[in-house]
Structures are given as C-alpha cells and as structure tokens.
Amino acid sequence: MFYATAENAHGLAHDPFKAIVSPRPIGWIGSKAADGSLNLAPYSFFNAISDTPKLVMFSSSGRKDSVRNIEQTREFTANFVSFDIHEAMNITSAPVPHGESEFALAGLTPVEGQFVQAPFVAEAYAALECKVTEIFQPKALDGTLSENHVVIGQVVGIHIREEAIRDGRFDMAKVRPVGRMGYMDYCDAGDVFEMFRPKR
Q: Is residue 167 left, alpha or beta, with left meaning phi > 0 and alpha meaning psi from -120 to 50?
C-alpha cells in the first residue's frame, strides 16, 4: 500500500506512523517549576542527537507542564525507563493538575541533581542531568508551526546505579529498557545481541 500523508487516507483503523518509527526510547522528563513544584512525565518523542557535546531532545505535543517548567528554569532530567518500573512510568502519564507531583502519585523518590535543581528518579537505573540549549516549535514544509515544542538539552551529569554496570558496560540484560511502539504498545528491549560494523 501507499498513501500521501497530506490526506492521511491510509484506510487503516489507526494511523501507522508512530508504529513504523519504533521502538522509540521514552523520555521520562523530570522538571521543577519556579514555584518549587515537581513534575515527572513520559514523552515518546525522545532521543540522543549528539555525542560531542552530549545532547538529548524531547518533543511535547502542546505546551505542557514539562515545557513550561523548563522554560522557567532551563533545566531538566531524563530518566531511564526499565521494565521493573514501567508501571510507575505509566502512572506518571496521568493528566494531573499543575502542582500535583507525579513522583508522589507513582510512589517514586525525587532526588535533586548535582548540577541542576530538577529532580531525577532515585529508582531509575540511570538519569541524565540536562541544561537547555534550545526550545522551539518545528516547521512544516509550508512554514506553519507544529503544535509540538522541541526541547534540546546538553547533558551535564550522568547518574548510574552500581548494580546496572557489568564488565564496564551499562548492562542491557539487567536494566531491560522499555521502548515505545505505536498505539498502546510497548516493548522490553532486554533481549540483546551484538553486531560489529564491517571493515573494508
């Protein structure tokens, strides 16, 4: 099959776009508002985009609390979602009023960062402390702005729990990262195999 996205007449029960672009890592974003309230929310548009410097991005559909908080403070954390805490991550996706902490809602422990005041999840196997480099709304071909807000942050500190390290590596089989698929589907990416780049 083929369909043009301008009309989006795919004829399927659900739009397949996000199912095709999968699995995607989950950006579990911790932030602190100017009034001191804490926020924790998962975003399915998230990834690392640079190694030197270390940059990550997430994209929010609409200007939600995470974006508003980060606009105020220019700081956030990105927390690793492992299989053992995937249900807690899902709880934090609930639409709660500003000022109500998703950390408390999900029974998670907030810890203030070393270089940022934004909280990270103590129960996560790893967390990135980030400072904002850019916030913008991406443009379509015709120049119209997307409803999404893209936040790019430079990673200034990394937390890793000791039990997640084996033989000098962040142990994928131990931490079992959770990925976002399409629809309401997720995957457990703990089944790991290696491939080496060919040499010519």
A: left
**pTM, entire model:** 0.94
Task: Tell me the pLDDT tens digit for each residue of 114-170.
Answer: 999 999 999 999 999 999 999 999 999 999 999 999 999 999 999 999 999 999 999
Rounded CA gap, 180 and 183, in Å? 9
Report the alpha-carbon distance of residue 182 to residue 24 in Å, rounded.
Answer: 9
**Residue with tokens 């994928």, as numbered in its chain:** 172
- Determine the Cα–Cα distance for residues 29 and 42; give it in Å rounded to an integer: 6
Q: What is the pLDDT of residue 189?
A: 82
Report whether 82 contacts 176 (CB < 8 A). yes
Write down the H helix ranges in the chain: 17-20, 65-73, 86-91, 102-106, 172-175
| Chain centre to alpha carbon of residue 165 | 21
Measured CA to CA, the distance from residue 8 to residue 51 in angstroms comes to 35
Rounded CA separation 149/70 (Å): 11
The 8 Å CB, 24+ separation contacts for 33-38 are: 33/65, 33/68, 33/69, 33/72, 33/73, 33/98, 33/99, 34/69, 34/72, 34/73, 35/99, 37/98, 37/99, 37/100, 37/101, 38/101, 38/102, 38/103, 38/110, 38/119
Q: pLDDT digits over 34-51, tens only?
A: 999 999 999 999 999 999
